[in-house]
Amino acid sequence: MTDCILYNESCITGTRSHLKENSVDLIITDPPYGIKGDTLHKHYNRDESHVVDGYVEIPEDEYGRFSIDWICEAERILKPGGSMYIVSGYSNLYHILHALRQTSLVEINHIIWKYNFGVWTSRKFISSHYHILFYEKPGGRRTFNLEARFGAEEKSGDNGSLNYQDREDVWMINREYKPGQVKNKNELPVQLLAKMILYSSNEGDLVCDLFLGGGSTARTAIGLNRRAVGFEVSPAIYSVRAPDIMNLKPGFLIDEQRVPECSAPKRQRERWTAESRSDLLHRYEELKSQGLKKGEIVERLMEDLGRGRWSIIKALKAIAEEV
Ligand SMILES: C[S@@+](CC[C@H](N)C(=O)[O-])C[C@H]1O[C@@H](n2cnc3c(N)ncnc32)[C@H](O)[C@@H]1O
Question: What is the C-alpha to C-alpha distance for residues 29 and 66, in angstroms, rounded to an integer?
């Protein structure tokens, strides 16, 4: 069954009623831009006939206060070590950066998302990027799956590192062209969302979107076997997509993902000795006492000990059977 709850409520009051402090692993969100929703189509220069009505905009003079309110909630619900990606245009970027600076959240990267659906202009350069602010809540170990999409040794045709290229902070990902399909005003592409989700969370983690719109974050999270929660204040927008998303089959996007060719663990073929097993048990108990879940502990041990997942799980099982 899908582990997903989407609320038709403002994220500011909704998070306070429904989400506990330190409960979310990853936030990916795309707040309203504060640039007059009614004229958004002029910015995108496109046919609006299949775009769902009901987008709730924030008046420009309220945008600063609004940003502080929701970003403080985001800080509260994120787990220590949890990550947040905020997608923002440039018009009100300074309000979002200002709000972030009122919190304990720490900047990891300022990513530029370059896309091919630019605004048409005749007397200035054409805008074709968004900002993606990647932050973390300090106090825990942040998930960053280094080989989420490309193994460290994988090369492109000209011998460049595919892993390096994928982790540069300018992302070129096209918007999805969906002629004739019902869509939200600014739907984010699955490829963009999958990249953030795969690098910054693990299966079973809870992913939250505070401004669901068409629900693309929740949909992608479920498709990648994560749990999802989110908020959309507009009843019109919520009713078009949210009920179906809550019934999606978990993991439906997994088969479409590229499987990275990961480098072999450093100590893959080494036998477990009495000493290395005792070290394993000691580290396991230590991480458990820090409140980590079993899956997180195994990930940490793989990295710290240079061993594969099954090798660690089997060794732990053997130790438990001996005791
Ligand atoms: C930029 S859109 C999100 C688009 C979304 N990323 C997608 O892929 O469809 C912002 C959404 O936030 C909603 N919104 C505005 N104020 C809100 C609030 N206080 N709480 C929750 N949603 C809100 C708007 O109605 C709009 O649908």
Answer: 14
